[in-house]
Amino acid sequence: MITASAYKGKKVGVFGLARTGVAAVRALEASGAEVLAWDDAPERQAAVGPSAHNLYDADMKTLDAVMLAPGVPLNFPTPHALVVQCREAGTALISDFDFFEAARADMARHKIVAITGTNGKSTTTALIGHVVSECGKPAAVGGNIGRGILSLDPLPEGGVYVFEMSSFQLDLTTGFKADVGILLNITPDHLDRHGSLEGYVAAKQRLFEQQDASGVAVISVDDAHGASMAATYAGRVVPISVEKPVAGGVYVLDGLLTDDMRGDALVVADLRKCAPMLLGSHNWQNAAAAYAAGRSLGLEAETIISAFTSFPGLAHRQETVATIDGVRYINDSKATNVDAASRALKAFENIHWVAGGRPKEKNFTALAPLMTNVKQAYLIGEAADAIAHDVGADVTVTDCRDMEHALECARANASAGDVILLSPACTAFDQFRDFENRGDVFRALVLALEGERS
Fold first, then answer.
1. Which fold has domain 5-98?
2. DSSP assignment of 435-448
3. Which of 13, 133, 323, 414 has the greatest number of beta carbons closer than 10 A?
4. pTM for the predicted model, two decimal places
5. Residue 313 pLDDT class (50, 70, 90 cuts)
6. The 3-state secondary structure of 214-278, one letter per residue
7. Class of 107-309 per CATH?
8. For residue 73, is the peptide bond before it cis, meaning its omega torsion is within 30 degrees of 0?
9. How far is CA 354 from CA 277, 344, 378, in A?
């Protein structure tokens, strides 16, 4: 685990005891801090043993800091009660990333790459971790993906920590300094937490605000928010694009990855041929970001491209589950918003689309033009009627209620060469525990199907 001598003798509250919170309690205790840990769920309180202490009854003025779980609201829709207590007492609110920053002084020389954006964060994070490892350097991946960062083992000299950071985590973090920060894209998301699109954008921008002047900012300029940020931090930005050439940056046009970081615009790879798990313009964006990060870390271009060819991809992100009787089954359960689903709908043709769940957005009209790639839609969950209303004029729609029925209908209508795509454009919380559970159910149903597999 990660420890920080700066916290020895400190008295620190920890609120929220899921994986991040429990890891924080262990790290603080190992650092010599007195810890008061609490969660509103009684079963989670038991995970921290004698450190459990009801923070609602604590004298906040006696605490040096309170570490909050990412889901605890700071301002919207209203500040959490403990946030109000801390602010009234003048007690610092921190995140596990702030603790990690304090720990860096005790650690072997290393670099940190941090990735944020609305979509593609997890794939890009995993891809960069894979690239670093394949290039022969020690790597550790965590944050909003996989393990909490404080549960990671310290890396030896020359190691690279690769962290996915959500807007929730950035909202809480005040002093974390990534050596390489990456912004992939911004579309409206989590507006209930941030109050507005402007609040959401401001949370993302904190990644670059907190960097030192020597920090590298890899920023996609394919949306207006990214372009604005790139202009703000000009001088230390590596722009990336999948829509146009970008001077001094990295871009992918028609699958050709071009490196212009030194001003010589060299085509270094054809991603259509060398990277089977990185097909489609959204994955080309991920690859451009990973390449820019790798080069910023001093990795050789040839080694980075070689690592792309062996990247296994991630579960629930356009994951090919099976091909049965010539029909390919794709699990894209991670597509919990309209923009993410649009990326999958652009990546395939002859689609039987399984979609729906609990909606994040007010409408699904942005998906209507993509119905030219869809043979039929099979809708489930709370958003079924809304999706049917917004796209139904352009495609045949069947209300299937649940995943099992949707898959049955899709299989009955699909023929060899078609794709059955789960890309819900919604969260899973109406029928499933989370998007992983939804994807696991889809995978299990597919693997139980009979037929000739290839």
1. Rossmann fold (3.40.50)
2. HHHHHHHHHHHHHT
3. 13
4. 0.84
5. confident
6. CCEEEEECCCHHHHHHHHHCCCCEEEEECCCCCCCCEEEECCEEEECCCCCCEEEEEHHHHCCCC
7. alpha beta
8. no
9. 22, 12, 5
